[in-house]
Amino acid sequence: MNSSWIDIAGAHGERFTGYLSLPPTGRGPGIVLLSEIWGVNEHIRAVADQYALDGYAVLAPDYFWRLEPRVDLGYDQAGTARAFELYQQVDTAQAAIDAASALATLRARPECTGKVATMGFCLGGQLAYRAAAIGQPDAAVVYYGGGVHQHLDVADRLGMPVLFHHAGRDSFITQDAVAAIKARFAGKPQARFFDYADVDHGFNCWGRPAYEQHAAALAHGRTLEFLAQQL
Question: Which of 3, 90, 134, 228 could form a cystine bridge with 21, CB 3.0-4.6 A?
Fold first, then answer.
């Protein structure tokens, strides 16, 4: 893969880093990829590479950098415990601003051909959603976005197409939370929802017990179709 860590300019002149993975052609539409709470780890780098092979320039920013630079945790007991510690400490409003800064950085790079989407998983899904309200990408993809239902006040600022994936057996994002998100976007044709009835939170991550290959492949195909239409 044609990948490297690059600098990202923050909103107030600070600098942090992100993992940039480029398509075989070297250029393509952009995706800002927001990780789960385990950081820009092996799995998220593989997801970035996967979408790069699909033709996208993908930047996965390190949104935990103020707490611990380049968090790269495994899914074992120790890694998961540390991930939840970071989750409790991170300033999500600031992380969303940092994600929007990554969006601006990617848009300005010569490897990006113009249009850009945000995409995220769990907490990263929330950040992809909130960063879209700030940075106004061309599209957003939210995989089981943790806490999105607590930030529905920004929904009116998402005029771009948004794709939501939710797991039917998700104990973190309950069906009541999903219903609240759907109700808030009712009448907004730019929002699309896909529900996966028999899978749990984190079904896209092959490093976790919740991984479900069929749902992950189906969601990936739907996401690629959505991105091809919007970018």
Answer: 3
